[in-house]
Amino acid sequence: MLYSLGIDSGSTTTKGVLYDGKNVLRMEMIPTTACPQQSIRQIYEALWSENVGYTVTTGYGRELLTEADKKVTEITCHARGAAFLNPGIGAVVDIGGQDSKAILLDRDLNVIDFLMNDKCAAGTGRFVEVMMRTLERPVAEMDDFVAGCKPLNISSMCTVFAESEIVSLLAKGENPGDIALGVIHSVCRRTAIFAQRLKLEGDIFFSGGLSRFRIFSEVLEQYLNRPVYTSPAAQYAGALGAAVIGYRKLI
Amino acid sequence: MELIKELPEVFEDFAEQRKNSFLAVKELKDQGVPVVGVFCTYLPQEIPAAMGAAVVGLCSTSDETIPEAEKELPRNLCPLIKSSYGFAKTDKCPFFYFSDLIVGETTCDGKKKMYEQLGEFKPVHVMELPNSQSEDGLQMYKNEIIRFQKVLEEKFGITITEEDIRRATHLRNEERKALKAFYELMKLDPAPMKGQDLFQILYGSTFKFDKEKVVSEINAIREKVESEYKEGKCLDKRPRILVTGSPVAGGAMKVVKAIEDNGGVVVAFENCGGARSIEALVDEDAPDIYQALASRYLSLGCSCMSPNPNRYRLMGELIEDYKADAVVDVVLQACHTYNVETMGIKKYVKEQYGIPYMSLETDYSTGDIGQLNTRMAAFIEML
């Protein structure tokens, strides 16, 4: 039995997926350290066995693993991974650690167009991370933290300016949960405006680190005005896509 | 099939031409040859060439002088404008330093306002370029060409005859024909060379002052590439990309490099320095040579024209003739006219030709090279 291995070396986390052509056998995720090469190697060593016949790397650090048989961009991999998790979709919105992308698929789930945000942290996972740090709350508690809150308007797009805007809101005595929900709305609104430059059709799959919070899917759905799906494995979409592409090379 | 590994030395010669011309321009200057510095493709080079002047391009493409420019100009401005102004201010570019006269045109807002400031410390003449390619516009541009000639005659105390202009026109046409015949080699599939190498030749030729020599050199390079192609020297089969939009020389060349590093080949350049500035000839035998010059130059399809049908027309021809698989539209940061025009161009490319299109905004820095590579690789994976 031959497996394929997909590794997504992202800016915040490094993910690996082991795939047998039908099912995901293992998924691993670790934080990407200041030495991304080490992180990608750690995942590779954790998942590699003699049964692995093909390894595909993707993400910012995709060039860093010499053992990789193929390097594929995160655009193609996210599309393939998302289509694997939810074959009925027409587009993918991915909010990653340092960029966001919108990918349009045709009926055969091939990429037909895509957009990436500018070289700026605005509207990305990093933006949310910085804001939660300012609010002194762990990112992982996001959903509970904003439950029942009313979003405040955060007008700054720039991560640095938005941070000082939050500091002023805190100084005015605003409820931190309302501020956090405001940040979520700001990210989703920006992502939706950006994604709608592509003529989105059909259902949307939401991937990337933020997809594990229910609130992001809900708010994104409001702004995109169409059904948004995600999956518990959505954060692994890139690595999964890489594994699926790799498996095709095996047969 | 043998792949091209090393290009003929003459490619190097052209690639280094801009630098080599620094000395050449000084020598010309020492011999008393006037130097006219120009910015834009709309400038009828035949007029200064007719008086025997050396014509040099001043559009700057390096981010080296941008910090200097940003002491005065706004940050949120096109890098070409900032870089050019910075070079003028610091006199780091010998072409600025040796130019007896700098000529600009009222093209985009950023440039024309920059020329006002440049005129404070450099000898600047600005030609008034109409906003649209109408009959009235044509008449106006013809008058502007005549006025430009008078400015030169007064400044240098010479007379430019019609015969001089016709002779210069003929020579420029010969150069255009030679350059066109050269880049038409890219119609071959697989392509005979990389777009980066092709562009170096086109760009380098603008810094060679002996135009008769340029014609014979270009013809020689074309024949060499042609005969090597027949022997089987060419690139592997790659997706064929048409590059359009803002100028890509210098700092913005990173986009072409990213396309070609990630498996594509740029087969045509619909931009300044590429087909846009070379393709059309001047009617040498027209009874009114000024009319002929005005109609050739004003017809160029830059986004500062409104509307801009000739850009669409030329792009369509290039897509068909060069069998482009996709279009990449390069927009220099804060270049509003090209940026807004991406909407129409995207629609045109997708609906008329059914091929993928991507636009991207960039500058002369190296900060976005990682992202550029990802974008280009993904775009090419999609083809």
Automatic annotation (TrEMBL), chain A:
Entry's Gene Ontology molecular function annotations = iron-sulfur cluster binding; metal ion binding
ATPase BadF/BadG/BcrA/BcrD type domain boundaries: 5-246
**Is Iron one of the keywords UniProt gives this record?**
yes
Do you know which Gene3D superfamilies this protein is assigned to?
3.30.420.40
Work out whether the entry's keyword set contains Iron: yes
Instruction: Write down a Pfam family by its short name.
Output: BcrAD_BadFG
Q: What is this protein called?
A: CoA-substrate-specific enzyme activase, putative
Automatic annotation (TrEMBL), chain B:
What is the required cofactor set for this protein?
A: [4Fe-4S] cluster
Any Pfam family from its record, for instance, is HGD-D
Q: Which UniProt keywords apply?
A: Iron, Iron-sulfur, Metal-binding
Gene3D superfamilies (UniProt xref) = 1.20.1270.370, 3.40.50.11890, 3.40.50.11900
**Domain of life assignment:** Bacteria
Name the Gene Ontology molecular function terms of this record.
Answer: hydro-lyase activity; iron-sulfur cluster binding
Concerning InterPro entries, the annotation shows: FldB/FldC_alpha/beta, YjiM-like
Q: Which PANTHER family match?
A: 2-HYDROXYGLUTARYL-COA DEHYDRATASE, D-COMPONENT-RELATED, DEHYDRATASE SUBUNIT YJIM-RELATED
**Annotated family:** Belongs to the FldB/FldC dehydratase alpha/beta subunit family.
What is the protein name given in its UniProt record? Benzoyl-CoA reductase/2-hydroxyglutaryl-CoA dehydratase subunit, BcrC/BadD/HgdB
Q: Which organism is it from?
A: Lactonifactor longoviformis DSM 17459
